[in-house]
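Job type: complex structure
Entries:
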Amino acid sequence: MNGNAFSFSQLGTLIRGSAVYRSIVRHGTAETNRNRSLVIFENLFLHVHPVKVREKTLKFSHTYWLGGITVSALVVLIATGILLMFYYHPSVPQAYRDMKELKFVVDNGVFYRNLHRWAAHLMVLGALLHMGRVFYHRAYRPPRQFNWVIGVVLLLVTLLLSYTGYLLPWDQLAFWGVSVGTNMAKEAPILGPPLRFLMLGGNIVSENALLRFYVLHCVLLPAALFGFLGVHIWRVRKDGGVQGPPEPPADDEVEP
Amino acid sequence: MSLPMPSLKVVESNDPVAVPKRVALVRPDARATLRRVEERWVMTYPNLILREVICFQVVVIVLAVIALLFNAPLEGIANPLETPNPSKAPWYFLGLQELLHYFPPVVAGVVFPGLVVVALVVIPYAKINLSARPLWSGDKARTRLWVGGAAAFLAVFFALFGCWPIVVPTLLIGAAMFSVYGGQLDGRLRRFLVSVTLPEWIMTWFILVATVLTLIGTFFRGPGWSLVWPWNMYPPA
């Protein structure tokens, strides 16, 4: 690079050396292993990770990145979901009209709705495949038993999120899909009918159900998901990192 | 070559005053082996973080391309008076909806999904999942009795309800389990099958059943939940 020209890397160095930047990020540039550990250690969000990881666990065949794909789909869902909320009214018939608004009036509205829809499918699929991967790698075994249970809870929350979101467009597909599902819930002995009434805010899928599903979809279930997801990822660190395929016992190892 | 385990006296106290010294005795006929594994560790930043960012970018790009090419479905406004035939739940519930065709609603909608959730939760606490040996490595006669009995019971039970989408995978998995009964090691497939553990067989059976039910419910069910080809699902009125 030309020695006299002011380069972007010089600009970066200047910013990172400034008093304001150093008051926010206390460690220096990640050129030493000490600073590289501080990047993780001193960051509220990154410190769900350990400072060091076993090199072999980075291999693709260890995890197939299925957990990462699921979380990535979640991030896309949050971003597009917030944008969609700006245009959405959880009422009849405005909810359906908003779908048409998104399609014909709002800039890129149809693109964000598409993204949200396909990312939701990817998240359900990713969670299922991740679960299969963990099972066949026997990664549920001690000390990771309880993280498997949290994973089952996360799967159920994910399914509920997808299911509550399914009603929100208020078209025929949404209405009858949710009607079929909630009719099944009705069959549970004792708890079924009152639970269904509580969920729908009535005896049929109506405007009340739309509002309740909206609140569940945008507030309660995401909050539950963040809580369990945080514990899930944090426990991966606490249980000694991700577990890849089981290794055959060494030649001189005696089976207990 | 299993050697007798050395017997250890466990002192039930962690109080260093009460138990000042601890001794582990290793009998001369057993070697204490230590498995040394040279593990290479790398810094999470940038090695893991960078990969995570790349994973996220790939997901965003793939989803963006799909979102540009395919529109999310949107039908007419909801009308409680006009029931589409067939009315279907989202795809991940269509396996259950397919079961509704064979079983009373309380069984298909409550008992089966409840059993699945309970079964998933207890996986890491069940002993068979923790020992995880190849299916036929233990007492063969006993295994034959239990596995054959369970497969036959499931096949007959689901056949009584006419639920062939479960009967057929059950018989297939049962046949695959017994195909390596003699422990034959010829051929790659057999070498692989002989190493499969009982929990893996059960999970594979469950995944196969769930996939078959979901595919039938999604693509092969039309008006009145009758069997149709995917292209005839909504026949012209």
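Summary: The radius of gyration of chain A is 24 Å. The CA atoms of residues 169 and 207 of chain A lie 12 Å apart.
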